[in-house]
Amino acid sequence: MGRRVVTLAGAALAWVSLAVVPATAATDLSDYLRDADEAVYSGRRIVITVWEGDAEYALLDIEHAMGVTVVDRYGDDAVVGSGKLKASGDGMIQFVDWTEDALSSRYTVGEPQPAGHGGRSAVAVDVLEGGVARARFVFDEDTHAPLVTEVYDGGGTLFRYSSMVEFAVGVEDMPAPGGDATPYNVAMPLEEHDFAAGAGPYRLVDAYSGSDGTTQGFYSDGLFSFSLFAIEGRADIGDMVDGAPLEVGDSEYTIVVAPTELWVLWNADGETYVLVGDLPPDHLAQVLGDLPEPNRWNWLQRMWHSLFD
Amino acid sequence: MNDERVPSWEDVAQRYGRRIYNFAYRLTGDPDDAADLVQDVLIRVRSGLDQYQPGSFEGWLWRITRNAFLDGVRRRQRRPTMPLPEDDHASLGSSPSPDEVLAAVRLSDDVQAALVKLPYDFREAVVLCDVVGLTYDEIADATEVPVGTVRSRIHRGRKMLRETLTWPV
Amino acid sequence: MAGLSAEIREELLSAYLDGELRPGELTVVTRILTGDDEAIAMFRSLQAVRRAVRLLPELEIPAHLLPEGHFGDRLSAYLDGALRTAEMRTVAGHLMGCADCRSELQTLDRARIAIRALPGVEPPEILELRREVEEARRKMRLGRVAVWVGGVAAAAALLFGLSVGGREQPTVDLADLGDRHVARASVTSGFQILPALSETGKP
User: Fold this and answer.
1) Which residue in A5, A167, A304, C164 has a CA-CA distance of 20 to 30 Å to C67?
2) Looking at the domain assignment, is residue C146 inside a domain?
């Protein structure tokens, strides 16, 4: 991604879903997603994110069985599922306590429609927001494995596209859960914290502290989610990441677009904030508007900083 | 493409289809003729693959393509050579300046129209060099003429294009 | 090479543009172009013409000409996210059933990796290098940062020589933050699971 200034409309758009969420359709989606988690399949997935005419893609080798996924991306392995993640060579991260969340009433879920993908019978479920298409799930008819996921930005343009390009029922090789004695990095729930209870259309679901002294606020709207990390101290973000400037209203952030999620980094007061999540760009603009504003140091701060460099 | 491994005709279609199509299109300016040629070539490749002797695959392929093209032209009873354009500006003394040439080359349609006006041998040589991207040796192999002839045809083709593009008929 | 006819000398200019000069001919070309305005003008015209033909747009081959509706060069546009949604779906679905196109996708992927890689690296080290590049991008460590204590009083305290103390900041691994998000998001609670994110492991 080049250093281009990308401006998002700062005005918060109030998405009010006037339609009553048909209970059956929403339940259907929930059921499909639960089945998807339990399905057993393997294959190759491509994920493409399109942002301002640029695209980032990744090809992932996937094995999924009963809530656990093994992802091989260009030789790097990670095992994810049920609140745990272990990447090759690292200790395991584990969440033991969390709050359930529900789909925001902003969304309307359509009735499942017959579809096809790669020669397999499938079922497509559309999710609308304010009457405009926001996401589409395509589940394999037999196993309910997720074959395709599409996410659109506020204008209905494709934002992220994820699809199996190779698919087989069953898995060959799954690692035993928690096999070797790997150190656990358990995320502790935080009772007291400074995270805003809501940001844009998202609400704070849980807050955690990490062993490195960072705090994590997990926000969700039931469909998309992001984590906001607060790290004490200011950082020279431009030196750290190869991102692009992002302007929202009068504020400037740094954004990195990865195939599977967005990263936004900024300094505010004495903290460094890192936001990472799969939310679409128009939601991001609304969210950032409700989070601590980035600020530049004034002359006194700069002097102070230079004294301690 | 690895010369030792004989590709399947699907491989050929995938990897060369576009270039064959562009070759035919630039030679004729006609998308239907180009499409016909691609299909023709693929059929010939398909039936010829079992007789193919490992060697220069691309040379073999382009020879097939040329032959298919010329056969197609004969079938359509169209003369492969175009008459030379009226040479009002034949004398070398009044050669167009490069700026004039560049100024005239605004639309690819103009270039395409100028190409089609070239005598067939010149046109084919220029297309194989500048559209398909073959080397002189590869062109010599495909057209079965010496490299010196290739060189001469390309040069004379370009000179004629230069004239046509600056003073369109 | 006094014996060369004017025509043959001129041909050398075209051959020179195509990088097809034989040994010894470069000297001739240099001599032709030195001080001869007409020759130089001819050279530049040939250059312009050659460029004009080379810049002709490369046309897409109509899909029906490819065996069994393969997507050939459209795969590149697919990776660029440049296809319309309906086409994205068709291509993705086709890929599931077509080993040829999948292998083509793989080739394209490697070629793109190669383009982004450092010069002078040959495949098959490309995948190793890609991993290193990804690692470098992901392990964006926040280094020691100055502590902004805040408030004029603190500044005043410093001026009076009182120690405020620069706390040693632990380095924070951004890749680790990403993992923590993905781990939390992977919790099963109905709508939380989006295949695009939950199964990515590292960002």
Assistant:
1) A167
2) no
Domain count, chain C: 2
Burial pattern A196-228, b for ≥16 Cβ within 10 A else e, equals beebbbbebbbbbebebebbbbbbbbbbbbbbb
Classify burial at C64, counting beta carbons within 10 Å of its beta carbon; exposed 0-12, middle 13-18, buried 19 or more: exposed
Q: Chain B within 8 Å of C58 (Cβ-Cβ)?
A: yes
Supply the DSSP symbol for A40.
Answer: E
C59 near B CB under 8 A: yes
Q: Tell whether C29 is covered by a domain.
A: yes
Residue in C168, C145, C166, C155 with CA at minimum distance from that of residue A299 = C155
CATH number at A186-308: 3.30.200.100
Is pTM beyond 0.80? Reply is no
> Domain spans of chain A?
186-308
Within-domain flag for C196? no
**Of C117, C141, C157, which marks where a domain is finished?**
C117
Instruction: Please report the number of interchain residue pairs, chain A to chain C, with beta-carbon separation below 8 angstroms.
Output: 280
Nearest-CB residue to B101 (from C48, C55, C104): C48
- Supply the ipTM of this predicted assembly: 0.86
Do the domain assignments include residue C152? no
pLDDT digits (tens, 9 = 90+) for C115-149: 554 444 444 444 454 455 455 444 433 322 222 22
The per-residue pLDDT for range B43-79, each reduced to its tens digit, is 888 888 777 777 778 888 898 898 888 887 777 654 4
Range of the domain at C27: 6-54
